[in-house]
What we know:
With about 300 residues, this protein is an alpha/beta fold. Helices cover about 35% and strands about 10% of the residues.
Amino acid sequence: MSILSKIRHVDSYLYRNLIAPRLYSWRDRKILEKNLELKNKYAGKRCFIIGGGPSVSNIDLGILSNEYTFVMAEFDKNLEYLKLMPKFHIIADSAYFSEDQTEYWPERLRAKSGFIPTQTIMYINIGAKSFIDKYGLFKNHRVYFIGMQGIFTENLPFNIGLTKYVPYPKNSVLMCLMVAHWMGFEEIYLLGCEHNFLSFNIGRGKSLVYSHSYQDELSKLDPSNDAVLKKYISPRDLKLTYEKNIAHVLQLFKNYRFFYKRAREENPKIRILNATPDSFLDVFPMVNFEDIKFDGK
């Protein structure tokens, strides 16, 4: 890399991580200030963040129906979704409202608007707001928005408060953790978070999807069919090599660690516990789901 290229890279890095988050936070301050309604509302309570991993299939989700539960992304495909009646549903991925990319994901966001119970509070990527307004989605839900810009890094200060832009989390579980921390939850359990991404070979002619606790139509599609790929897979994901996936997973684990350190600085009482069996996510202490106490159990 030439000296000029290095200078440009540094300028871009500082803009994306220092300047842009502040500019966007000011621009969208009225939208983000609504998040103050839920700040520390559940202080000292416990919650469960439920990922889409296959181990969730071994849990009777009805046992969690009286708990504070977070789900994300495509979890509404789980057959026990309405039995669980999650308190919060997080949608962070920009694919859901990028009309110029694949057809499938914007269709899924419209479907969620009609299916997800109105009692479930929605937390959605702020980039989707114009899309939601345009198509009149989630009119009967309580909807809050999250702004994302920049990265988690030890080299620069980053924000995890929801009245300003936060770094891109790289997955929805971490976004749920940021929301739960903001709400004041202090005992947070992770379920369905196997994080065994590197055991899957994703891409053209390979698998189109990771293993989940619900039926995913993508797993039944021909991964070599160009029409299928155009509708269901973003150009970004088609270019994902195994080496790049290793780098993504490494950064994701670092993001968890950076977030947890900052969260504990802000609230030393917070505990994040991974109750997912055979999980690779060892950033947080592991516990057995069977050892968690429930009322009447």
